[in-house]
Design a protein that fits this description.
There is one protein chain. With about 525 residues, the chain is of the alpha/beta class. It folds into 2 domains: about 210 residues, Periplasmic binding protein-like II (D-Maltodextrin-Binding Protein, domain 2); about 240 residues, Periplasmic binding protein-like II (D-Maltodextrin-Binding Protein, domain 2). Helix content is about 40%, strand content about 10%. The protein is built from 18 helices and 14 strands. The strands form 5 sheets. Strands 2-1-3-13 form a 4-stranded mixed β-sheet. Strands 12-4-14 form a 3-stranded mixed β-sheet. The protein is globular, with a radius of gyration of 28 Å. The N and C termini lie far apart (about 70 Å). About 40% of the residues are buried. It binds calcium ion. Calcium ion binds next to loops.
Length: about 525
């Protein structure tokens, strides 16, 4: 026993001497980072890119690697202790609430004074062309407690703004084979579309002698199969996911609005209800799931006249995709179609925050700043050059994905190789630094060359990526779900039964009684703060 103890003592002395000696020789500062990793990811300290960045910055990092299932529990314990905090939290799923709360308590430090070209040159370079990025990570108290992170799977429009892939999630698709057979043109107005739907219903375009055609199908309030695009001729579109935070939300001349209480909404629903009454709309629009919906496009007999979806082939299959074509947004009683974009933000919060116990925030931030370099950021997000990407770029200087080992997919490779944390992919990196996935690129091309070329949307209609105070979140949590549900319920009934004119005033009154004005005030206050932080 004595022998064992003396051996342990000797070992301890040896270890402390080694550590001490190394520190003296190199004076390499060590930071402790609490980091979220995926369940397939090896610990961060084993990743080649981590070693590369540590060497470049002249620091050491000790990691506490935590996977998703343990994350909340570990975070709560750390913040409850409030002492000896890790120097930083990286990809730790810090929520807005945690950022505000722990920032307010002084456990997380404000970062805005460190975001300078001297300390964070790469991030500052991104900010030069993305002036609204910091406003999106500014909390309601005016401080920035976490670095921005994200990516722009999108394109740069003629106006210089970046538009993301989901800003119009509903592509209208129509059977052009049937149009040709019946001698009809591609509709450009709601009235023309109505006449096309009547012809689809009554003139047996699939030629089987049975009135089995479904002139128009959609999925009521679905994010991609919904009918929000049909409102364009009434002066708006309504693309936000009804299950998300911003259903029916928009901005008109700086004023935040709830679209489902506008006169335009009333007119649009009344108009489309007539189509339902005429049997032009699939009676299953309120009940079908996406499997059922898609099966209609792939039915043995071709029965689907028109529909909405993310893209054409997924619904009707590649063999039939050429029989269908995109339909533009349609003009209507309010004139030319107006496309209001879906709320989509490239910028996320919470991916990197620094605690009060960090001795040298500037040093740590200059280390993490390297992740905002395009080529380093790419490797953080996917995996190293020479592993996830081919060792050499192609003739255009663009990095190409390496072939996954047999039996694995690119997705699995990414899960294992990526090093999660802050980074930012600008739209222009695609095709100049690395390539976007083919189908995503195709969809973006359609968005830009078909929808944007025709409709020239105004981004000011879209509510930005704001932050809410705790009190504001309480108001939202208390009333918004009921308001959305009431709108859904009434809208479905009006589409099926008509009668919207008679019930409209009581509907509006009921929404106010449920707190709609309080909700609008909260949205407006947060919007005004965001504008002020720009
Ligand atoms: Ca038929």
């Amino acid at each position: 026993m004595k022998k064992l103890i003396s051996l342990i003592l000797a070992l301890c002395m040896l270890m402390s001497m080694t550590t001490f000696g190394a520190a003296l020789a190199e004076e390499v500062p060590t930071f402790h980072i609490f980091a979220g990793i995926t369940s397939m990811s090896p610990p961060n300290e084993t990743k080649p890119l981590v070693k590369q960045l540590n060497e470049a910055a002249g620091i050491n990092v000790t990691w506490e690697n935590v996977t998703g299932d343990m994350m909340t529990e570990r975070k709560n314990l750390i913040f409850a202790a409030a002492e000896d905090l890790p120097d930083a939290f990286m990809n730790a799923g810090l929520t807005d609430y945690e950022l505000m709360n722990y920032g307010d308590q002084g456990m997380l430090i404000a970062l805005e004074d460190y975001i300078t070209p001297e300390i964070m040159p790469n991030l500052c370079k991104v900010l030069e062309t993305r002036p609204n990025m910091l406003a999106q990570v500014t909390m309601p108290d005016g401080h920035i407690y976490s670095l921005p992170s994200g990516g722009e799977m999108g394109f740069t429009g003629d106006d210089g703004n970046v538009y993301l892939i989901g800003v119009n999630p509903q592509f209208g698709v129509i059977n052009v084979d049937w149009l040709n057979k019946l001698g009809l043109q591609m509709p450009t107005t709601m009235d023309e579309f109505h006449d096309v739907l009547v012809a689809f219903k009554t003139q047996d375009p699939n030629g089987n002698g049975v009135a089995d055609e479904i002139p128009l199908s959609f999925m009521f309030e679905n994010w991609t199969a919904g009918m929000g695009a049909l409102f364009a001729g009434f002066g708006f579109t309504d693309f936000n996911d009804v299950n998300g935070l911003g259903a029916h939300r928009g901005v008109v001349d700086g004023k935040v609005v709830y679209k489902a209480v506008s006169e335009q909404y009333k007119e649009a629903i009344a108009y489309i209800a007539n189509w339902y009454a005429e049997g032009l709309i699939d009676i299953e629009v309120f009940s079908q799931d996406s499997a059922k919906y898609i099966s209609k496009g792939k039915n043995d007999e071709i029965i689907l006249g028109s529909y909405f979806w993310w893209e054409i082939p997924e619904v009707v299959g590649y063999d039939r995709a050429d029989m269908y074509a995109l339909m533009p947004l349609l003009a209507g009683p309010a004139g030319d179609p107006v496309m209001m974009l879906r709320e989509e933000s490239a910028v996320g919060r919470g991916s990197f925050a620094i605690s009060k116990d960090c001795a040298d925030p500037a040093k740590l931030l200059s280390w993490v700043d390297m992740r905002y370099d395009p080529v380093i950021g790419m490797q953080c997000d996917y995996g190293p050059i020479g592993e996830f990407f081919e060792a050499e770029p192609d003739e255009k200087g663009v990095y190409v994905n390496a072939k996954p080992a047999e039996g694995t997919t690119e997705g699995e490779m990414k899960e294992v190789m990526q090093w999660s944390g802050p980074s930012y992919t600008k739209a222009e990196y695609y095709g100049t630094v690395f390539y976007m996935e083919d189908r995503a690129q195709e969809r973006l091309d359609i968005l830009r060359d078909f929808y944007f070329a025709k409709h020239n949307p105004d981004p000011s209609y879209t509510y930005p990526n704001v932050t809410f105070t705790a009190e504001e979140n309480e108001v939202i949590n208390e009333i918004y779900a009921d308001i959305k549900n009431f709108t859904s319920e009434k809208t479905a009934l009006w589409l099926k039964n008509g009668n919207i004119d008679a019930e409209w005033d009581s509907y509006v009154k009921q929404l106010d009684a449920m707190g709609l004005q309080d909700l609008l005030k909260v949205w407006q206050d947060a919007y005004d703060r965001y504008q002020a932080a720009m």
